[in-house]
Write a structure and sequence with these properties.
Layout (H helix, E strand, L loop, with lengths): L14 E5 L3 H12 L4 E5 L4 H7 L4 E5 L4 H10 L7 E6 L2 H4 L9 E4 L4 H11 L13 E2 L3 E6 L2 E10 L3 E5 L9 E7 L5 E12 L2 E6 L3 H14 L3
Helix pairs in contact: 1-5
Amino acid sequence: MTAEPAIPTAKPRPKVAAVRVDPAGASLLREAFGKHGIETITVPFETYQQRFNAQKFDAVAVDLGPDADEFLRTVRASTLNKHAVIYGIAESPEQATSFFRHGLNALLFKPLDREAVIETVEATYRLLSGELRCYPRVALVTTVDLEYEGTRDKATSSELSGGGMSLRTKLQAPVGQRLNVAFTLPGSRTVGMTGVISWVQPGKIGIRFDRSDNRDVVRDWLYDYLEIV
């Protein structure tokens, strides 16, 4: 008797928890994530502890208002949700800085803008959709100290890989400019790297790291973050 072929089990849709996001903002998130088969679920702030202890979410979009620090600590300590992708929603970049230590993956600013939401989701959805193991870059928001030609400046990262990073910055420097960067990996230590500007866009630059021992530190952190063995 011939065995019946096994019926593939349907993979559950990735889920994003929207916490303290107003109805208009939640609608924008639902639209942007929905294009990639990702479900957005509104979670009341008052019940987040019970919900996050009982249900796994692939990402969390949260307003960085009062009690957000405790909320993010809870998420990062959660067995089910410690690796969730975090979309912080802030009034300004300055307001968000104190939350970088929790490992924010992306920033959105109020009031939420449709194009900005779509652009951010397009840049990060692979982290939620099961492509982690073949996606070598991780969206990460952290403060980066820059030093070049005796000048010091600050920037904010938007993406990190073992070979380089993308930065949001007002720095105006050409492709090929060498510089030093220092940044803190969430849950890890401050890393200093030397690199070269590999591309320039309005308000953004890409840096390619030199080969060094610290590249291994970055890669090890990425592998741990992505749970790659």
